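Hi there,

I know you've been waiting on this one. I reran it after we fixed the sequence typo, so this is the corrected version. Both the input and the resulting structure follow.
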Amino acid sequence: DLYRKVFVFRKDPSDAFVVLQAQLEQPLRNFTVCLRSYTDLSRPHSLFSYATKAQDNEILLFKPKPEEYRFYVGGKFVTFRVPEGRRDWEHVCASWESSTGIAEFWLNGKPWPRKGLQRGYTVGATAAILLGQEQDSFGGGFDLYYSFSGELTDVYLWDTGLSPEKMRAAFLSLRLPPALLAWNSLSYEVKGDVVVKPRLRE
């Protein structure tokens, strides 16, 4: 149970990563991914990477620079411009709906204008899901320049689009619906220099 704990990626740049195990019965036509990160990186870095054998950027949350997030589905991406962080924890949620191709992005409990992405696409179910690296091949092909350094916590993946109330609940760490990946019952494997530590503050 990772309640009130964080993954600390200690090195910069780093070859370390965390593998997440999710039981996906079928391909995803809707999903929401949420996580909280704390870093002083100004270079590009990957937060959440979900690759299939057919598509290395099947789902990717990527931060190319401090004032920008990129959200990939099936190799295509939309960009969300954000205020440059005040070197504090940032909570992000990104959701996607195949039928409309609507991509939602929430930062610290607030929604950004919705964008269109990959309408009619289906996300493959047999996936390598990693924190801390950006996959260029299934489960590998890392560019250390895109590695994450800092702290990650509260990682979730749902096979639905969360309602606005639930998006805000995720930001506030309140009760959440059952998830494919849930922080408090996470099945994971650490590869390299990543340490699990208590959170320094709420």
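Quick highlight: The radius of gyration is 15 Å.

Best,
R. S.
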